[in-house]
Amino acid sequence: MITESVCNYEAMSAAAASIIYSDVARCLQKGERYNLGLATGNTPIRLYEELAVKLNTARLDLSLLSTWNLDEYATESRAAVPVTHPLSYRRFMEEKLFSKIDPALGFSRECTHFPDPDDPASYDRAIAAAGGIDLQLLGIGFNGHIAFNEPMSESEISVADFAALPTRVLPLSDETIAQNTHVTAGGDESLMPRYAVTMGMAPILAAKKCLLLACFAEQEKPLRAILKRGVPTPELPASYLWQHPDYHLIYTADKINVY
Ligand code: GLP
Predict the structure, then answer these.
(1) Which residues of 152-171 are buried (b: 16+ CB within 10 A; e: fewer)?
(2) Active-site residue among 72, 116, 145, 248?
């Protein structure tokens, strides 16, 4: 486990882009497939810019690269929001990363995956059939969620059962609706979907490496609580990462002081 503090957002983005690029390049250069788990939100925006530059500069053959996104918003009828929705995560990925990668490198949209609210269980099967996620990038919600695995009380679910949660559709918590209205919907709550499909805790924790980034002052509270408690709890989903065998946290010291 590595817990690394860097000075600011720029440094976090550069460090994370280097970690991801090196791991991807190491496998692709050996002719191996690589399954990269991706996250959305404000945290990885700059990292994606840097990663695209690194991939384009290196001229790596990306035909063996597949991506697996953590989550997508869903409508009241539990369908994935259309890519035209301003908060669509597929749209976000297209704008922030996919379209920035030189098409000549062989990266195919057919190798970009998002969970499907119509058949969430198929996502876990597809990840397993692809050989598992090599590196999962993660942000942390202000309530400690990872992807959209929302906190639950220990009276509702055991520590072990929470870790085993599969990919599924769920209603978003009031806290998450408020947070994402503020940080991604420009304060317009009418834009915010009330449901999402999220990669489950089980496939996230099964990733070979987990890279968690934190760069907003509001993330200090869940990180501090996790470090203080020291053992996983469904009340703070990100707390499960501290038990992951290859887990790396990078946080920005200008916004967050966890000690
Ligand atoms: C959403 C996503 C999470 C992400 C979180 C933090 O809720 N489902 O995966 O970690 O936002 O977003 P931000 O990076 O904007 O802080």
Answers:
(1) beeeeeeeeebbebebbbbe
(2) 145
The tally of domains found in the chain comes to 1
Residue 17 within a domain: yes
For residue 105, the CA-to-ligand 1 centroid distance in Å is 29
Closest CA to 41 of 99, 114, 92: 92
Domain membership of residue 163 (yes or no) is yes
Catalytic residue among 35, 69, 143, 180: 143
Measured in Å, residue 3 CA sits from the centre of ligand 1 at 20
Rounded average pLDDT over 189-212: 97
CATH code: domain of residue 177: 3.40.50.1360
For residue 143, indicate whether it is catalytic.
yes
- Predicted TM-score of the model (pTM): 0.97
> What pLDDT digit, counting tens, does each position of 226-254 carry?
988 889 999 999 999 999 999 999 999 99
